[in-house]
Design a protein that fits this description.
By secondary structure, this protein is of the alpha/beta class. The protein contains 10 helices and 14 strands. InterPro entries: DNA_methylase_N6_adenine_CS, RlmKL-like_Mtase, RlmL_1st, SAM-dependent_MTases_sf, THUMP_dom.
């Protein structure tokens, strides 16, 4: 198989988590702002699309060069071997972006890249008329930053946060990959309780269940690259079947979510059913102020209404004060709250153990972390065979 330079894109603030996911999968990774670079074969393109929980897209980095003139952009784009990936009938729309660069007109850059690729493919495939573009989809992007051009081909299509299980959403929903990132930033282990008391449409508990059961998040969706001819026949099916076999449905999970709105609880239950985790997550209608538990050493992760999501500032203050009153007595529980409210700690009534800056879409937020006490270590009894005779 051929080796490609690949790029996993991610939201600002969680690219390091995406990088760690890739490292655990065995890749050498270079993390930059919003990106994690790695190398891989066609099989790796499939594997990362199916398994990465926090990434947005997997892209092939097809060209990298400096360009300060449109001629430079055209000639260097045309010099790339596009025919190695794009067949004669490929549909290849070109999107673009430009920052702090001489070539600042994005529409012009897109048009020039498109023309250069058309010229290259027309010469290679001996076409005198227009290319049909009636075949598989190959989304191409030209991204220019400080005159450095990166040309990529998107293997994912729609963002990887679109898992395929969330057909209905509550108000201001959290994206699935951001929800997975929040879970992965905690100290939760699948053998401990997990709870979201403001669960909305259930995204955070569902993502926790997918992690706990080792279910690949991309199993229930499709990708445009499935139609590409660079993949040997049957490769997608084989790797998908391997991913399905890796799930551990015999794991016992204690995951729950609640919300005051009965409508979103119904949506959460429906989403959990579609995700295949309905038997592992319990949802119920409950006001945050009424949440109590006798369980210990659990983890709470929540994305309560805030800022742009709830216009009434007085309601926000009341909610966050209730949160402090309910959560603070749970000394063995770790609590993680995502909000853009700068005065959250003041309303909550306690300073966070740690804060982490994250972006929920374009909105700057903080992930306030309150770490609970650790469970006592279980003393290992010495086997008589382990005791050395003096």
């Amino acid at each position: 198989m051929k080796t490609y330079q690949l790029m996993a894109t991610a939201a600002s603030g969680i690219e390091a988590i995406t990088g760690n996911e890739l490292k655990k999968m065995g890749y050498n990774v270079q993390v930059e702002n919003g990106k994690a670079y790695f190398s891989g074969t066609e099989a790796d393109i499939i594997t990362t699309n199916l398994w990465l929980r926090t990434a947005d897209r997997i892209k092939i980095v097809f060209g990298k060069f400096e360009a300060k003139t449109f001629d430079d952009l055209f000639e260097q784009t045309k010099a790339l071997p596009w025919e190695q990936i794009l067949p004669m009938d490929a549909e290849f729309p070109v999107s673009g972006k430009s920052q702090k660069s001489t070539l600042y007109s994005v529409p012009d850059c897109q048009a020039i890249v498109k023309k250069a690729i058309v010229n290259r493919l027309s010469e290679y495939y001996h076409r005198r008329t227009r290319l049909p573009e009636s075949g598989a989809l190959y989304p191409i992007e030209v991204a220019i930053n400080k005159d450095e051009v990166i040309l990529t081909i998107d293997t994912s299509g729609s963002s990887l946060f679109k898992r395929g299980y969330r057909s209905e959403k509550g108000g201001a929903p959290l994206k699935e990959n951001m929800a997975a990132a929040l879970v992965m930033l905690t100290n939760w282990f699948p053998d401990r309780p997990f709870y979201d008391p403001t669960c909305g449409s259930g995204t955070i508990p569902i993502e926790a269940a997918l992690i706990g059961l080792n279910i690949a998040p991309g199993l229930k969706r499709s990708f445009p690259s499935e139609e590409w001819n660079i993949f040997e026949e049957g490769l997608w099916d084989r790797i998908r079947n391997e991913a399905k076999a890796a799930a551990s449905f015999d794991v016992k999970l204690d995951i729950g979510g609640s919300d005051i709105d009965p409508h979103v609880i119904a949506i959460a239950k429906s989403n959990a059913e579609k995700a295949g985790v309905a038997d592992y997550v319990t949802f119920k209608q409950l006001a945050l102020a009424d949440f109590t538990t006798t369980k210990e050493y659990g983890t709470i992760v929540c994305n309560p209404p805030y800022g742009e999501r709830l216009s009434d500032q007085e309601e926000i203050e009341i909610l966050y004060k209730e949160m402090g009153q309910v959560f603070r007595p749970l000394k063995t529980w770790s609590k993680y709250i995502l909000t853009s409210e700068l005065l959250f700690e003041e309303f909550y009534g306690e300073r966070a153990t740690k804060k982490r800056k994250l972006y929920n879409g374009r909105l700057r937020t903080d992930f306030f972390q309150y770490w609970g006490t650790r469970p006592p270590r279980i003393k290992k009894e010495l086997d008589t065979n382990d005791v050395k005779e003096k």
